[in-house]
Structure formats: C-alpha cells, structure tokens
Specification:
The protein has 374 residues and is of the alpha/beta class. The protein has helices at 17-30, 40-60, 74-85, 100-110, 127-130, 153-163, 211-216, 249-265, 267-285, 312-323, 335-340, 359-373; strands at 4-5, 68-71, 91-94, 115-118, 135-141, 166-170, 189-193, 205-209, 291-293, 302-307, 325-326, 328-330, 348-352. It contains 12 helices and 13 strands.
C-alpha cells in the first residue's frame, strides 16, 4: 500500500533532494562553524549563512540581511520578540487562532503583569477598539495550523503603523508557499520555522526584525557569539545580539538549499499548486454527509475535518492503517483555535498539503473520506 503523506503542517516531507545533499556536504566535507575561524571551511560556513540571510530578504521583501536572525525554530523566534519586548504594565493584543508557541509565553507574561486582549475572529477592524496607550505589541497568526484560515495581516499592519505599535507575524503555516511582503504588511518582525513551508530541516528557523524593534529587544539567551569576545555582555550589533551559542550549521546549509529551491520554482507557482490541490480537496468532500470542514477564509493548504458521530482519533488511525494516508488528529497545540471552531476538546483530523503532493494524493484522500463516512 502506497503511503500518502498529508501532515505537512507538522513538517514537510519529502524535502527537495538538494536539501539532503547540502546537509551531507556540510557534514562530510566542511564541518566548521561560521565566525569561529579564519580558515577556509569556517569562511565557507559563514558565506552560506550570509547567503541564507540574503535569500530570506529576497523572498520576503526585507532589505536588512544583518537583521535576519537564525533561530532554532519559529517558537524560539516568537519568544525572542514577545519576552524580549514586553514588561509588566505593557499591553499586548493577539489574534485568536493562535498556536501555543504564542499563547504560552503570552500567558506566562500575563501572570507577571502584562495585560492581554484577544482580537475577535476574522475582524481586524476591531483592533482599533482594543488599542490602549500601554499597547506595545500586536501578534498575528498569518495562517491557522488548525483550519487553514488566513488573517488579514496587511490590514492589521496598517493599523499598527498608524498607531506606532510593533507588529509580530507568525508565518509558521505560510512562509515558503504563500507570498509574504514584510514591507507591504508593515511588519516589525516575521517568525518562521525552516522545516514546514520552507522545506528545510528541523531545528532551524528565521526571524526577520525591523531595526527599530531590534533596538528595543533584550536578548532572550546570552552567550558566546564568536564576535566581541573581549566583552562579557552580548554584542549590541546584529545579528550577533540574538545568536548566542553555536548555530545549527547543518540546518543552515539545508535551509539555504531549500530557499534556493523555492526561488528556482517561484513562490507564486508553489502557492498556485497548493491552492489547486486544496480547492480540489474541498470540492471533493463538499457533498459528503457526516463530515464537516471547519474554518473560513482558507488558502494555505490546510484542511481540518470533523467527523460527525465518529471519534476523530479513530478516523485518523484508520486513514493510516487502511489507506496509508498520514494525517494529524487532536488539538494541534492550538486549544484557543479549537474553542473558536467549536471542536474543543475532541479536535479534528487535519490534512495538510505541500508542493510535492499530487492530484492523485488528494483524490485518494477524498475517496477514503467517502468510504469512512459511508
């Protein structure tokens, strides 16, 4: 039985062949750290890190490679901004369909005296009524990892710019396969993992930070950077200010290769392919009784289904055992999103697409859903 991987919101698989080749080349032939030596291998590692930063600038319309921070993942990048900025007495507004990578640090800070408000679902205009003189930050989840619902980050960014409020975007479910423009959306920071839509390895991510915000952030982790080694304080310059310790250099090589792959294919073409598959999937299940697709305003390749009268976990297990289709069932680390969608605490079965999925994959999944609901 052929295995059909439809859990790309968790991590994309397969990866481009060039990603595996780049990681292997680093491990077998280079091995050195960037910024830790003046010999050839170290310089080559440094050049690859710089190429990664420059590729991210091109992909997201950002013009400061030195403000592209290499992180251990999206969670780390989000925490760097949230905890690096907010202090007791500050106020933060978050969009409702949030992952716990945002909500857990927010709730932790709330206990320390940071005030928190949730923006109503799919209503960016309500932001005006929530802003206070203490409002320091707005955090938006661009694409829901539960339902695939998209937030209007351009509208939110416009309001943040008007009110002089920092704006952080979590692009975990959109970066790499949905066009994102840092400048057009008036972002202050953009966080993303390397292993999802960017099709790179796990354990690495990127955080793009506007210089104005970078100056305000306290480093979340301090340590060696290979620079300013005469000081016992973190360097004030970027990106070293936020890159304490040894980088995940195999990940740097892999992620640089995956961004090259995305540039070669074209972000618009990748997005068009995934949207074509998503629309085919949604059209295929539209007439099936006993199953409901949750959410609205879709567009990032995520389809979340609630099977009426059945245990969603059992459905997900049957999809694997009987059809070879790999999905994810549960609350997807986003309980607030499920409460909005009225699927808490039972969760949903999530199907998520990547550039490497095909129409045949989608048709097989739709056929399986029909049989399970039959």
């Amino acid at each position: 039985m052929k295995t059909i991987y439809l859990d790309n919101s968790a991590t994309t698989f397969p990866k481009p062949e060039s990603v595996a080749a780049a990681v292997e080349n680093y491990i077998r032939n280079i091995g050195a750290n960037p910024g830790r030596g003046a010999y050839g291998a170290s310089l080559e590692a440094g050049r690859t890190a710089l190429k990664l930063r420059m590729a991210a600038c091109r992909l997201f319309n950002f013009d400061r490679p030195d403000h592209v921070v290499i992180t251990p993942g999206a969670t780390a990048g989000l925490n760097m901004v949230i905890k690096g900025l907010l202090k007791p007495g500050d106020h933060v507004i978050v969009t409702p369909m949030q992952h716990n990578s945002v909500m857990r640090p927010i709730r932790q800070l709330e206990k320390q005296g940071v005030a928190v408000d949730l923006l109503p679902f799919n209503d960016s205009s309500a932001l005006h009524g929530l802003i206070k003189k203490e409002t320091k930050l707005v955090v938006a989840c661009h694409g829901s990892n539960v339902s695939g619902s998209l937030e209007d980050i351009e509208a939110i960014g416009k309001i943040c710019k008007e009110k002089n409020i920092f704006f952080l975007v979590d692009a975990a479910q959109t970066a790499g396969h949905y066009p994102i423009d840092f400048k057009a959306c008036n972002m202050s920071a953009l966080a993303m993992p390397g292993h999802k839509g960017l099709m790179g390895p796990q354990g690495i991510g990127l955080l793009l930070v506007d210089p104005k915000l970078a100056e305000q952030l306290d480093p979340l982790i301090c340590g060696g950077t290979g620079s300013a080694s005469d000081l016992e304080e973190m360097p004030a310059f970027m990106p070293d200010k936020f890159e304490a310790g040894t980088l995940n250099v195999p990940g740097v090589f892999g992620l640089e290769a995956s961004l090259r792959f995305i540039e070669e294919k074209g972000i618009k073409a990748i997005h068009a392919h995934i949207i074509e598959l998503e629309e085919r999937f949604r059209a295929g299940i539209a007439g099936i009784s006993g199953v409901t697709a949750v959410g609205e305003n879709f567009g990032c390749g995520v389809i979340s289904l609630d099977f009426e009268g059945q245990d969603n976990a059992s459905v997900s297990a049957a999809l694997e055992q009987d059809y070879g289709i790999l999905t994810r069932c549960g609350l997807h680390c986003a309980p607030s999103a499920h409460k909005i969608l009225n699927t808490f605490p039972r969760g949903t079965v999530r199907f998520s697409l990547s550039y490497f999925n095909t129409q045949e994959d989608v048709d097989a999944a739709v056929s399986a859903v029909k049989e399970i609901c039959g």
